[in-house]
Amino acid sequence: MESERIQRNKIQNQQDEKDDSGIEQDNSFIYIRISVEDLHLQKVLKFNLDDTVWCAKQKVLQVLIRELTDSLNFGLYLPPCNGRAGKFLDESRCLREYPLSGPVSYLEFKYKRRVYKAIHLVQKNINLKINVKKFIESVRTNQISKVSRYLEKGFDPNFHISDDETPLSSACIDLLEPRSMIMTLVNGGAHLDFRIRNGVNGGAHLDFRIRNGGLTPLHQSAIYNRKEAIVTLLELGASPNIYDEKMLTPLYHSIINKQVETNIDSSYCCLLLLQDHSIVNCHDESLSTELHQACRLGLVQHIEHLLFYRADINAINIGGNTPLHICAATNQEACARVLLFRGADINIVNKTNKTAYELALVSQNHSIASLIETHKSEHVVPFRDTPLINPKRRSIYIEQQRNKHRARSSSNTTPLSSSSTNRSQSMPKFNSNNSTRRSQSPITTPTIEHYFQQQHPSSRSSSPKSFSVNSDHGFGSECASHLSSSSPNAPNGSYTYKRKRLYAAAPGRKCMCIKSYRTNLPGELLLKKGDIVEILSVGEQGYLEGKCKDIEGWFPSNHVQDICVFKNGEMINDDTIVISRDALSALMINNDAYSPRTIVLQRGKKGFGFVLRGSRVAGKLFQPSPSFPALQFLDSIEKGSNADKAGLKQNDYVLEVCF
Length: 659
What we know:
Layout: H1 2-16, E1 29-36, E2 41-48, H2 53-63, E3 74-78, E4 87-88, E5 105-111, H3 123-126, H4 129-140, H5 144-152, H6 167-174, H7 179-187, H8 217-223, H9 227-235, H10 250-256, H11 266-275, H12 290-297, H13 300-308, H14 323-330, H15 333-341, H16 356-362, H17 366-373, H18 396-410, H19 446-451, E6 501-504, E7 510-513, E8 532-539, E9 543-548, E10 551-556, E11 560-566, E12 576-578, H20 581-588, E13 610-614, E14 632-637, H21 642-645
Parallel strand pairs: 1-5
Antiparallel strand pairs: 1-2, 3-4, 3-5, 6-8, 7-8, 7-11, 8-9, 9-10, 11-12, 13-14
Helix pairs in contact: 4-5, 5-7, 6-7, 6-8, 8-9, 8-10, 9-11, 10-11, 10-12, 11-13, 12-13, 12-14, 14-15, 14-16, 15-17, 16-17
GO molecular function: ionotropic glutamate receptor binding; synaptic receptor adaptor activity
Keywords: ANK repeat, SH3 domain
Pfam families: Ank, Ank_2, SH3_2
């Protein structure tokens, strides 16, 4: 009885500690009155201040409203107060970062619409059906002036098109140069986190398990690898850590995307998200992380990026398998070499009590089994360089740690934040400010020294998208690549080329050129389709440094595919080459730069065999460009027709017609 009385007094004292601000004195919890005006519901709920707005929204949906149509597009709205305009709370930020005042704070839970400053506007009168159709057509044809006029009249761009896309997501994935249209839509009231209803259109490119809804424009851009759209959305404040309905981040979608287009560099899109504080080790319902998926798909460059940004190399999925187990089961030797080189544990057993070596033997992947068997601990070279991150973006995890430290200083006992146990179990362990950090010990591995000489990094980078971090080997800073004297444009036997190295590639990594590359600057490597390139280092902006035919230089990573070279299960030069189906299909496609050509075409019994379409362009005068050379193009080609036999392809532009 005495213990119960003490417990009741303790609870009463904690309730009495609540001050006039609605926040308890331990600075951990707050009481908020949530109002759902459409359903005429109100309820006071208790929230942890260190929780994100996303966690708070999930709690509202679970406690207050269990079933709601398009629930992910509802948000917590802070009404106008004290001269401040009303706004929807950013789902990636903590509740502590917002001015929640009063004994019990007040927030509205409503559907995300455009926030109007002029109250007299009637949105239903503006978003008429005919206006919606014209607006969608203007967005898809990149008519910025027309879109701006609609938005200036008060048009709300937050709606779903017939195919469940949104105008902003359509601009991100359909336009070749979407930057201006994205900025116009966002300035006109489009929410960066307004989600589509169902899965991604064109799901044939994707694994069937990821056709889920709740995708934001950033998710869509990551899936389709739209670099310009990703950069623009991030610059406008879109969070790289926003979740879809399956609790997956844009980074996760950029990994599991299975599109194979040689003009797209998905690894660079992955790097862009990582540089903007994207969390790692997010997992799906089977507990498979980004690293598991990258190993399953054979994405060597993605694996390097993830490990460089401190992904858990020994993460375990629901079957107890590590990424090395996945490589052993799917015969991804190039990925396994990177994992072993970076320190993967070969002694972890899965739930069937098998190590990666035993799983490789069972799967009859003897080359990987031999690789694991001959691996020694002295071969491991972990990353010692500091990853490059965007210093202008505030990391929500660092803010949470500061808030927790502040809360502990005011109270001896502080409950743990529920947000610390979310689906993403870990985060990159590096500082978010622009300070630099040097490696504690220089890399003395002979393999690394064979590839690189110690450089003297400068204090700033010439690239606006990169951020200076000093290192003992010059990685992560503007460094001069001293290439071999056999390079064609080398004055006095050598020359320098300014390109930022991020980190050294795993030794023995080789790629095959699947798309010819012509050099634009001195120091770049001329590549022809079928060339074998030895990768030396990974650079900024999606570039790799490699060696081909005793010549070193830089080239875009989307022009090559990783391969393995075998002889009796061992890596050697000039022998059997094993490439993936994707690389083989890319080699078979004529994907070199398009050039004007003349076709002589005769009319058949059913016509020419093609469908001609016309494009609309904003403005009175059309100016041809390399990406948009004409207004008319071929929409479809009938198989076996005269057009097909003459070599016409879908999306070919018609420059001139002569009779």
